[in-house]
Amino acid sequence: MTEAIDSITLAVLAGRMEQIADEMDATLFRAAFNPIIAEAHDASHGLYHSATGDTLVQGKSGLPIFVGVMSFAVKAVIDKAADAGDLTDGDIYIFNDAHLGGTHLSDMRLVRPYFRDGVLFCYLASVGHWHDVGGAVPGNYNPSATEAFQEAFVLPPVKLARGGVVQQDIIDILMRNTRLPQSAMGDLNGQLGALDLGVKRLDELLDEYGAGTVRAALDALGDRAETLMRTELTGLPDGRWEAEDYLDNDGITDTALPIRVALEIDGDRMVLDFEGTAPVTAGPVNIALPTAVATAYVAIKHIFPDLPANAGVMRPIDVRVPDGSLLSAEFPAPVGGYTETILRMIDVIFSAAAQAAPDRAVANAYGTINALSIAGKRANGQPWVMFSFYGGGHGGSIETNGLNHGNAPISTATIPPMEILEAAYPVMFRQWALRPDSAGAGRHRGGLGAVYEIELLEEKAEAFLFGERGRFPPQGVAGGETAAMNEFRYEQADGWHQPLLASKMLGIKLVRGQAVRLETPGGGGYGHAADRSPEAIARDVALGYLSPEAATQTYGPEWQEAAQ
Asked: How far is CA 94 from CA 22, 61, 85, 127, 166, in A?
């Protein structure tokens, strides 16, 4: 029988449990070797239900996409442990199989059961983006992959530790399947340290409050999240609204791929139906079903920002993904470019929601992480892999302009600083700047994209790009206009070139002094451009966000008087 719990105790325990997850995040960020975790915070930690794997609490610094995805990862471990029948205190499972745990193979998941007085109380989990996990392309973003085996080493759920004893043979296998074993070992130790800290903090919490009270708080938090979501839905009009957008291509065939959604609201229930989305593709823009469900949660969290990070939020929401869709790919379909597809999912949900509730809507953000890898060997033969993602503009809203040069709305991650990248790798940034004239026009314009130009300082290297929005621009909402599209160029002896597939490129050979250049999209505009104040336009021109020519062409000449 679940204990009753008063609201004050519930609030205190909710804060304490969030703090546990936050501390786990911070522990990994401080300990990780690779900048994607240490600087960009591409990782997450949380507490998960002992029977269902549902998300109970997640750290505030972790990536939102992992909120829903990690529950599937924990469920995979629950199933594996049930089949084996040997789950004990001190066990730790590790795996990266994206078709079981969502996202892609670079995300290494560790799941640890937490026992109290010999009884399973909950699960702790850690996920972090490792720098390299084998595969055909350094950094694992292979735009030409046609199966998962070409993207990375695939590890199903296996026990990294048994009863508290780490299995060295599993570590040996992991380290043999990466180009950067020192980095991988550092990240692994960081994740193990985060889990150890989580166990210590849970011990302290349960010693203080008792297992029954804490369990009651966890149940109450899920029920409260559901109630809050139902309340939000009842405040919206009933109806059905549709939206569609496109991926440039799948990296293999230069054919646009539609992603469609129908959003239905009926009282305190919502349906997100993705019927009509493109089927599974040969190339790696597919995603597994767990990723699609988690993405729906991320979009909902943006539309209703006050909702907690708890699986109860999704109880009133039915996410329907057709079988055979690129949103429900099965193993071994390639899923390495999952980031691009989930961003388009979020875009279409935003566009549909804008029709139902314009006051809550946000225009499309730049819609691509532009996963760029540059790899080679140093003069001493030591391999190096610079993998990073890059920012762009966010969409305007009813309240304000979009954020300039932000990170993708799938995450709270930060873009690794230029100084860190230059210190770690033989590259130099010729340019790192805002991109003028890239924002979508509107009463509130979108945010600006960015320009990055990266020069190679080593003798030779290869570059790989996995991006999107090279053919289809970020959309505005409520009458707002589209933003600039993605542009990628690379330097060769005879000048600058662009990839045939617009946003994807494999094995660009560079020599010392040559560079690659990204010009990232802005965000879509909110509201009609005619409603933007001349003073706001003049300010954008004065700041260099908007050229005088573009200002006059887009908004008319009235701004010039305000500029005087």
From this structure: 21, 22, 17, 10, 11
Which is nearest to 520 in space by CA: 413, 427, 446? 446
- The rounded distance, in Å, linking the Cα atoms of 57 and 230 is 20
Close Cβ partners of 296 (under 8 Å, ≥ 6 residues apart) = 68, 272, 314, 317, 319, 345, 349
Cα(16)–Cα(95) distance, integer angstroms: 28
Residue 385 region by backbone torsions, left for phi larger than 0, else alpha for psi between -120 and 50, else beta: beta
The kind and range of the H/E element at 159 are: strand 158-162
Cβ count near 391 (within 10 Å):
24
pLDDT tens for each residue of 484-534 = 999 999 999 999 999 999 999 988 999 999 999 999 999 999 999 999 999
Q: Helix, strand, or coil here: 119?
A: strand
- 215 and 320 in contact (C-beta within 8 Å)? no
Taking residues 81-91, report their average pLDDT.
90
CA dist., res. 305 & res. 77, Å (int): 30
Token pair of 328 as six digits: 């429900």
Inform me whether the pLDDT recorded for 563 exceeds 80: no
Contact 110, 166 (CB under 8 A): no
Structure tokens at 205: 């919490």
SS3 content of the chain, % helix, strand, coil (to 5): 35, 25, 40
Q: How many residues does the chain have?
A: 564
The CA-based angle 438-439-442, given to 5 degrees, is 145
Q: What tokens appear for 222 in the block?
A: 């899920």
Detail the DSSP E strand segments found in 399-531.
Answer: 427-434, 450-456, 460-466, 487-492, 495-497, 504-511, 515-519
pLDDT tens, position by position, 427-460: 999 999 999 999 999 999 999 999 999 999 999 9
Residue 88: burial class (beta carbons within 10 Å; 0-12, 13-18, 19+): middle
Predicted local confidence at residue 562, as pLDDT: 82
Helix (H, G, I), strand (E, B) or coil at 243: strand
Q: Using alpha carbons, list the distances in angstroms from residue 540 to 30, 155, 241, 367.
A: 38, 50, 34, 23
